[in-house]
Amino acid sequence: MTEDALTETGPGPIDPRTPTAAPGAGTLLRLLRDGRPRTRSELASVTGLARSTVTQRVDALLASGLIGPAGEAVSTGGRPPTTFSFRPEARVVLAADLGATHARLALTDMSGTVLAEDRADLDIALGPVPVLDWVVEHGLALLATVGRDTDELLGVGIGLPGPVEHSTGRAVNPPIMPGWDDFDVAGHVNASIRRPVLVDNDVNIMALGEHHVAWPTAGHLMFVKVATGIGCGIISEGSVYRGAQGAAGDMGHIHVPNGGRQPCRCGNTGCLEAVASGHALAEALTNAGVPATGARDVVELSRGGSVPALRALRQAGRDIGEVLAAAVNMFNPSVIVIGGALALAGDHLLAGAREIIYQRSLPLATENLSIVSSKAGESAGVIGAAVMVIDHCLSVRHAQTLVMGA
Predict the structure, then answer these.
(1) For residues 206-242, b (16+ Cβ closer than 10 Å) or e, as one string?
(2) Cα 142 to Cα 96: distance, rounded to the nearest angstrom
């Protein structure tokens, strides 16, 4: 499967003069996914296809259950024509957001609406087989909970807390995932659930989820996850930007002025993650006489009014802002979203980041820039994993296979 096959975008305007308007059920489905009912005549007019071809494609989509009648249009004389619309409930998607120490599952419809959820404390270091078998077992249980079966499953989306080669669904030298390097994640899950399986870095799917939930019209968005580690998902022109090797957004290993000689798990010193991650803050607080074992403890301390914890969060925000200020000048996003476990501590992290970004970035780049907390919250990852599958499986390129196999 090629990279192009995995990066199809969702519904958008179609110019009938372009190759995307070639005959096929996928073209009509892409149009109807915007939720607006249309008649056969309207579909023929927009796509430039013959009325007979449109009728054939509509009949195929009706047989698949992906679209359905949506009432009658206003008559211009004679019998009112029938309109058709997309049926997001026709299929479901299994989405998994796997973190360093947690797992979150969700079952969604084809609009990304969550139908059922499950979560557990699960150590990614257990290895790929036990973790992925947990995903399969509990995913099938979620299907049963909502009265659906695997025949109605569109696909499976998985986010991993480390570098991922998106085109193959394999982790690449993940620092906190022993045993996962080059493991065929997609193949392992597909062996149990015979449906398409897509895999990406966890912060990329969180960026997708946040974009889908809160900023669907934002063409350029950065989602920064601040938790056990620090990473950034980049949305460019409405799609995830992964870079040449899928390593785009690994901002946690950029050197920062406050980093000094602090060792980082990547082998370098002075990295952002070494001074501003949940692990780094917990270690610094413990050394200062305020015991903390991880990001969750830092959050609880800050919520309890601990002055050292609040100061540490504010400084962490400033350190993150140092990196983001450079990114703002280079990438010029319209939205920066701060999420992850540490973002749950309140506004101190966000305030620190804003302070430095507005101080160090060019005025033109920040003129219309929004720097905000995550609105999707802890659901960003599973929603993004579901959106990744939906946009892939319902793309013009792949919808025909779905319709023929329905």
Answers:
(1) bbbbbbbbbbeebebbbbbbbbbbbbbbbbeeebbbb
(2) 12
Residues of the chain with CATH 1.10.10.10: 3-86
For 187-202, the pLDDT digits (tens) are: 999 999 999 999 999 9
DSSP for 75-144 reads PSSSSPPEEEEE-GGGSEEEEEEE-SSEEEEEEEETT--EEEEEEEE--GGG-HHHHHHHHHHHHHHHHH
**Quick one: pLDDT at residue 100?**
85
Residues of the chain with CATH 3.30.420.40: 91-206+381-405, 216-378
pLDDT (0 to 100) of residue 76:
63
Tell me if 87 sits within 8 A of 29, measured CB to CB. Answer: no
57 has pLDDT over 80: yes
Write out pLDDT tens, residues 21-41.
334 788 889 889 988 899 998
Instruction: Convert the pLDDT of each residue in 345-381 to its tens digit.
Output: 889 999 999 999 999 999 999 999 999 999 999 999 9
CB 54 within 8 A of CB 44: yes
In CATH terms, the superfamily for domain 216-378 is: ATPase, nucleotide binding domain (3.30.420.40)
What would the CATH number be for the domain defined by 91-206+381-405? 3.30.420.40
Half-sphere exposure of 360 (CA within 13 A, CB side): 19
- Residues 263, 275: Cα–Cα separation, whole Å: 9
Residue among 395, 337, 347 nearest 370 (CA): 337
Per the CB < 8 A criterion, the answer to whether 100 and 176 are in contact is yes
Instruction: Name which of 312, 394, 380 is nearest 346 in CA terms.
Output: 312
386: tokens are 């579901």
CATH number of 3-86: 1.10.10.10
Query: Which tens digits make up the pLDDT trace of 211-227?
Result: 999 999 999 999 999 99
Would the pLDDT of 6 be above 70? no
Averaged pLDDT score across all residues of the chain: 89
The rounded distance, in Å, linking the Cα atoms of 356 and 223 is: 17
The answer to whether 322 and 288 have CB atoms below 8 angstroms apart is: no
Residue pair 97/154 in contact by the 8 Å Cβ criterion: no
Instruction: Fill in the DSSP letter of residue 17.
Output: T
The token pair that represents 31 in the structure block: 């149009």
Three-state secondary structure call for residue 102: strand
C-alpha–C-alpha distance, residues 392 and 17, integer Å: 23
The amino acid occupying position 133 is D
pTM as predicted: 0.88
| pLDDT reading at 382 higher than 90 | yes
